[in-house]
Amino acid sequence: MITLQNVSRKFGRNDALCDVSFSLEMGKIYGIVGPNGSGKSTTLRLIAGLLFPSKGEVMVNGQKVNRKIAKHVAYLSDLDTFYRGFTVQDMFDFHVSQFDDFDHEKVDKLLSFLNLDRYKKLHQLSKGNRARVKLLLVLSRNAPVVLLDEPFSGLDPMVRDTIVEGLLRFIDYENQTVVITTHEVGEMEMLLDEVLLINEGKILSRQSVEVIREREGMSVKEWMKTLCGSEGRE
Amino acid sequence: MGEKFHSSKPIYLQIIDKIHYQIVRGELRKGEKLPSVREMAIQMGVNPNTIQRTYTELERMNVVETRRGQGTFVTENQMVIADLTSQLQHSMIEQFVWNMKELGLQAHEIKRALETYLEEEKK
Questions:
Q1: Considering only CB atoms, which chain B residues are within 8 Å of A192?
Q2: Do A217 and B1 touch (CB under 8 A)?
Q3: Is residue B4 one of the residues assigned to a domain?
Q4: Based on the domain organization, do B70 and B24 belong to the same domain?
Q5: Cα–Cα distance, B45 to B7 (Å, whole number)
Q6: Between chains, do B45 and A222 touch, taking CB under 8 Å as contact?
């Protein structure tokens, strides 16, 4: 479904990613975890076609990734950029104009699940509600690949719970692959099938969450701290 | 939403334990339908693949059966439920005895302590 083959990405002289290879299957939820600055977001942006590799190849859905991959990829940015004058409705009208897999039935369900008012202007919304809007836009699409970049950062526990529940309710597990980056593994742990631990631009380890518990007797958070040393601390 | 889980044990095993308890305590009756995989995933706050694994494992243990197109049901077999009850009892006693031995008590001391406790509880 998603394949990275010997991918490196430099920013100036710095290696953000260094010779990374992995592939991800359909129908699973993956976590890319690691300390800040380890290369998690770079990896996600490469899959989303927002960045291109300096070396190597990224394939999604059998296609080499370019800017047009957005057709198959729903991406939730860690940034909070909206047009100030837009209402929630304007925002999804815009998305409808860009993506043909926008599911209007899901929008209605999501609006009531997330308790959002479609006529509110985005700049009037709280940070938590803006996070809900971002989630709504991503989950309203029937894209085979769903990427979430740090969906929890800066949000209170209630909003975090809503995000987890929203994913459990609205992801179509048979037809969608989800990749989530986070440095706050705690709340995500129950949601994930597998984790890829990344540090200093390299994949340190990849493991199924249940195997980590079964074989190592650890939570993912403990496992991550053990492997990253003191840097792994949140 | 979202149950609490221990970090050191696989989640599917912890959910199996929860369902076993519910059956033994009669909260889930024989023949009763379990929530769908997705509904259970939402209730427990865990990945649906984990619930799928839980159901598959429960099926292998003959505690539930899956009927095509209808869902997953608690077994109608009273024997299986009786077994489950005695298994749970056994593992709890085992844990209790182990803890008491850790405290340095001998078998007859454990018995006496338990009897005294039960006597006092009656009053």
A1: 47
A2: no
A3: no
A4: yes
A5: 15
A6: no
